[in-house]
Amino acid sequence: MPHDVLPFRAPATLSTSLSAEIEADLRQLDSLALTLNSSPREPKATNNATLLDDADRVEPEDDSFPFTLHSGSREPKTPDNDSLLNKAVGVESEDDSSETSDEEDGGAKSFEVNAPPKPRKISEKKRADFAEFELWVEQNQSRLSKRKLVLDQDDSVRRMIQDFETKRIITSPRDYQLELFEIAKNQNTIAVLDTGSGKTLIAALLLRWTIHNEIEDRSQGHPKRIAFFLVDKVALVFQQHTVIDCNLDYPVAKLCGEILDSSPDKKDLWQKAFEENMAVVCTAAVLYDCLSRSYIRMDQINLLVFDEAHHTKKNHPYARIIKDFYLDAKEGGKRPRILGMTASPVDAQVDPRMAAAQLEALLHSQIATAADPATLQQTLCKPKEEIVVEYDRIPRDWETELHQALSPIIETHFLFKKPLEYARTAAADLGPWLADRYWQLFFGEEESIKLGSKTERTLLMESAVDEYRDRKVKEVQDGSRVVANHDFLRPTLDTTSLSSKVLQLVKYLRSQFAPSGSNCDNDRRCIVFVKQRTTAMLLADLVQQPEIKIPGLEVGILIGGGRSDTEFYNRKVGFRDQVRTVLKFKSGELNCIFATSVGEEGLDIPDCNVIIRFDLCDTLIQYIQSRGRARQEQSVYVHMVEKGNKKHRSKIIQNKMHEDTLRKFCSAMPEERKLTGNNLNMDYLLRKEKNQQQYTVPETGAKLNFKQSLITLATFVASLPHPPDVNLTPEYTVTVVSGGFQCEVLLPSTSPVKTAIGRVYSSKAVAKCSAAFEMCLALLRGKYLDKHLQTVFRKQVSAMRNARLAISSKKKGEYDMRIKPDIWSVRGVPTELHATALTLVNPGALGRASFPLLLLTRQPIAQIGLFALFFGTNSSSEVRCIPLPGTLKFNEDCSPEAIAAFTLKIFSDVFSKDYDATPAELPFFLAPTREAHDFDLPATKGIKYIIDWDTVKFVQKTERIEYGFDQEPDDFFTDKYVVDPWDGSRKFVLQRRCHHLKPTDTVPEGVVPPGHRAWRVSCQTHHILNYSISLWSRSRSRMTFRHEQPVVEAQLMPIRRNLLDDNIPDEDLQPKKCFLILEPLRISPLPVRVVAMAYNLPAIIHHIDSTLIALDACKLLGLDIRPDLALEAFTKDSDNSDEHDVEKINFQAGMGKNYERLEFLGDTFLKMATTISIYTQMPDKDECEYHVERMLMLCNRNLFNNAVEIKLEEYIRSASFNGRTWYPEGLTLTKGKRTNNNVKHALADKSIADVCEAVIGAAYLTAQNENSLDLAVQAVTAVVKDKNHSMKEYSDYYAAYKKPKWMLEPTNAIQVDMAERFRERLGYSFKSPRLLRCAFQHPTYPSIYEKLPSYQNLEFLGDSLLDMVCVDHLFRRFPGADPQWLTEHKMAMVSNQFLGCVAVELGFHKAITFCSPAIQNEIMEYVFKLEEALVEAKEQAVLAGKTEEQFSKDYWVHCAKPPKCLPDVLEAYLGAMFVDSEYDFGTVRAFFDRHILPYFEDIHLYDTFANKHPVTFLANLMQLRFHCSDWRLLVKDLNEGEDGEAALLGRGGAPQVVCAIRIHGQTVAHAVAESGRYSKIAAAKKAMNMLEDMDDEEFKGKYGCQCGEGKPSGNENVEQMDEALLHGTAI
Fold this sequence. Notes:
Elements lengths: L15 H15 L52 H6 L35 H16 L1 H4 L12 H9 L7 H14 L2 E4 L6 H21 L6 E6 L2 H14 L4 E4 L1 H5 L4 H11 L2 E5 H9 L8 E7 L9 H10 L10 E6 L9 H12 L2 E5 L2 H8 L4 E7 L9 H10 L6 H13 L2 H11 L2 H17 L4 H20 L14 H14 L12 E4 L3 H10 L12 E4 L16 H13 L4 E4 L14 E4 L6 H8 L8 E7 L3 H22 L6 E2 L6 H7 L6 E2 L6 E2 L1 H13 L12 E7 L2 E7 L8 E3 L6 H18 L30 E6 L14 E9 L12 E5 L9 E6 L2 E9 L4 E2 L6 H15 L3 E3 L7 E5 L14 H4 L2 H9 L19 E3 L7 E8 L18 H5 L6 H5 L4 H5 L9 E6 L19 E5 L5 E2 L4 H7 L2 H20 L6 H7 L26 H22 L5 H12 L1 H10 L22 E4 L7 E6 H18 L7 H11 L10 H6 L4 H4 L4 H14 L6 H6 L17 H22 ...
Parallel strand pairs: 1-6, 1-7, 2-4, 2-5, 3-4, 5-6, 7-14, 8-13, 9-11, 9-12, 10-11, 12-13
Antiparallel strand pairs: 15-16, 17-18, 18-19, 20-34, 21-22, 21-24, 21-25, 22-27, 23-24, 26-33, 28-29, 28-32, 29-30, 30-31, 35-36, 36-37
Helix pairs in contact: 1-3, 6-7, 8-50, 11-12, 15-19, 16-17, 18-19, 26-27, 28-30, 35-36, 36-40, 37-38, 37-40, 37-46, 39-40, 40-41, 46-47, 46-51, 46-52, 48-51, 53-55, 53-57
Cofactor: Mn(2+); Mg(2+)
Keywords: Antiviral defense, Antiviral protein, ATP-binding, Helicase, Hydrolase, Magnesium, Manganese, Metal-binding, Nucleotide-binding, Repeat, RNA-binding, Zinc
Family: Belongs to the helicase family. Dicer subfamily.
């Protein structure tokens, strides 16, 4: 059993009470929905996920709002606060219970709530499965609840809060960073902070601030100055440049000796660097040389950042720059600001106090450090313990046998002096096996060749004689031969092979990673620090040997960019190699790194459990920096010490003593130089400060003061929705202002109120209290704190659990369905008629000649779109309905009576319906035409001249064509239409007279027998006479027919009416040959060419009726939509129209396109329109309120209620052609079968809501040729019926927009400069640079710095704009693609994964302003991974014979997900550009075409993007490979029933949902997460890992599966499985 699967014991029986509980839980599961949150977007499982047997889910309309919505009606009247939001987040108030009328509601409609759906019928098997799952959860509750909070019985909420008060709840590393940033802005500063506390972020903030000041200065005419970031080593130039370049949207150069030496003119290079950049990252030596040559002067520098500033001493370039140039610069503004950064001011064994004082003096700066380092250490999780591991005394250096054999050969060679020395030391320090292994690697095959080449090349440069050169090359060859012939032993874990020091190292690694022989702990991370690069490589090689290897331990090396003479590793190590190693270490691909000092500083190495100093620290700075890597809880720092070695012991003790001395020195510094983090004596400061505020809640008397506000706010934040294992805290930013300090508090993104600013106070700590106090007041006003100052967020339940906004796709209601359009209800004697010509595009498909018919109506009919009729295999024609200009005015020559007679004759002779009707009663009329189908009918003089009046009048006066039996010529028997007056199904077209046949002759073979009863029952002989008579035997016995009359060959006309369906067998469509006598039949006066077209009328009239009914619905909504789109929007052709790649239920053939594509388009426009409307009318509201308001408008519940209110459901076309309902209504039928037009249809609530969205899509497409969005906007207003969307035209949006105050503030030079740089880069010129700046301001960046809000509101807007432009493109480009295919490919376009890639390509990551070192590191890592993926894609293109520029554009798919801020700022930029352009959607399209579309030219690269969802993969695996149907994916909320005390303490803020995957009654995998969505994904991944390598037989044997018996084996079907996983839905 896998270690992550908890055991399950199935019960023998289930009690009655337990079964009842299970049944109740099953009913509850029916309404279960996934938790909403603002985490990165994930692709949803495609329709394969419908294979799952869990309860029906109701998906929310929007996945970014994290709160549970409260059921009930909305109350838009908000005199004091936003009660709408209160209801949305489930806040109850005392006055919320009263109901209000529509009038009191200001005209807003309350939501109608249907009766709850009846419980689903659930099979006994599913009941039993769920019962076992419930019991399994109960049995394993304690292990599943990771965050279980155990409370002692004696503890109370009050006690917990008292304990909480004693903690420093307002301190975080960010406090120190911002405080230090404020200090560094005003004076030269040396930041002394521990490793991992974010010193680089402080440098980035100061660099940005300095550059901004520089831009302001230049705008005022001051000369140009630039900043320098100085490092000690060349490798750090590239490393720190990468970091700085990722965080500054300004040009930054990198310079080192190698770069300068490659330039022919250093002066030009420096001048170019100065002119083109705002900052330079370089080594101190390079800058010193530059200043010495006066390429750049000190007065041209505005900032000097000294990385690892402890190197500033004696003649180090850091010190020389200060002594020789900084001091010579004039005092005042010409000297640059200085920032030094170090974990300790000491890097040698000296007195820390003296060293610190000297460092301050040299850098002309003051040290700023934590006043209480213990607090920061606690935050950074320092090692829990430091231990000493002793090893036996190391013997003196000695030589192995291999060394002794090599030494005489190579000891005089200039390349081997240091390797020989190292090998002697290694034999003693590491052991003989590693010493010999060193030579084996040193003289490897490739290395030997390189050594020989290097020898020859070096001596050639020295002009050595050939003999000497050859001898030295031979020495290399001889040495290589000795090594190759040596008998190398395998390593063993004893002192004959390895030193005691190495043995102790291996032993300790094994104890940490695989104690007692168990499996490797993959969550552990370890760094082993050594002094030499070669040692790191040898140790890494050792632990990978089979005899030594620890199971699961994956090792790597982290070494610097240089190369020593002892090294056998010839490839140069660059910064990218180092970052690649660190990323592998973070991801777990590596879990143990052997590192030199490069791992101590600079690189952002993830927190570790174990740090081992294989070689002890020489200085305090090494000790502090290496120890700073052990930041995980329960971490260990190990000193490896030689037994009896006093020097080793003294090193450790001395470092400890020096650290203590340093801390005492820092503590003794003046208060103004301490980074307090505002952890001062709060009570003392509060007593000292006057003018403190206090608030008393009137209803309860609860009091809120400054101190209490800190606790209240911390408790509130802890209750907000958040992922497991994450502790939310408020963040405070204190700035220096006139009169003292002012603080801004920022709350997490899930808070309904994000920020508040306190008043000015003389103390930082009291300023913080003021900010917390103001925030608490804001929460009280919003009713997010109750009247007892308690949070209202008791528990985060699954989103939509109590909501009535979502509706079911299963529950149906029965509604009337309209059969006839309103136009037919207009009756009366016509004086003039409008005409629509009914013509065929391909009249030859009929198989006989035909002429168009005119449909004459009292009102004009809209232009009906082309639609197809099907006459057999490969035989079809589109129908063109052409409205003719003008009207038909009646007079003596053309009367309505004549047209009415012709129309009634069509119904009588062709369709066997005799009506007693006057012209005033007919809803429409039919008329024949003179011209063929291809004639230009609209070009004629008028309708009167198109009608074939001769035929009309002939039909009017002729009931039937008389027949004189044998008196007619042969041509009389050709091309006549004959009807059977006794059987309406028998209609014939005469072909010719058959002289050789008599009525009493037997019917020839091949003639289809007639369907009448007489032929089957009473006819003794099947001759032609009997064939022609359809009367029953009793009736025919009373009649006699001539036996001497002509026999005519005829065609029996097919009776099929639904020519709209292309899935009818050919035999039902083709005329059948037969032989008749005419005496019992009637010859119709209707010409055959008229009848041939009339036979198409049922399908044509049905289609016209359906179209006109859809147009009536549009008219009801006030929308003028194109007829074909209107019909498509109201067409539902099956019960599961919204499901693709599955068998259709109750499919209605011949209905044409259903609403699904339009619904997909309309849903997207609805989201965009409501988003724009909300943003427009609420520019100063926060994102939380935006989500609530939008959800209430676009939710299916609102659309459904609004549709039902106006009976829109009656207009939906859910039934295909019915041969009995196309006839006109309201006429007196005298002959023929009567019809019932009172038709009902069953529709799901969601289907009705979907049609509303489809109407929006139809409106959007109707006006696309005019490039207008007005009609779509009207459609949104019509279907949402909400006060927040009353727009009638697209221009109404911007007309209603009022710029917020922050946009109207004056623009500074920094913002203007940013807008100009973006214009040059992206082409769009911002009229409001402040708007652009806002789009890149992260929520962690204090708004107090620039008085700008964060990008969240613009991101909310941009998200909907991006969705719309992507869907619009896909819809136009792929007109035949189904909605599922469109959705899957849209997922790729709008995924965070892709948007992060585009953001980096456009350089957006450099422009983000934030105050979070975590974000800084995440961005840098993601940029590195993306660049790596791009390089690999280009290499693959070259290997495939293409150019680098032809690389595959989907390279980003293989990268990890980006930091969420990257896709967020891209969407925010779109939103900002849209607002700045005065809501011009064309700017969004232009951005899409230029920056997004190039990635999707080959759209099929992304066919599998959506199908990579783990749940989809699992479903495919179970269905296609194993053919298993007895598996379940079950979900349960572990927080259900949590008590109020636990909720109050914040446990409710982090829900826990367990998902278990069960196969044939066995729980095979489970996962616990903060929502059902994430627990399902995690559980599916685990199950996939277990199952994907199984073959079919193994699966059957393990789980007893017999579901696939009789089907192809899974192994035979693997190819099908792979095909399903590798390819998406076809277009």
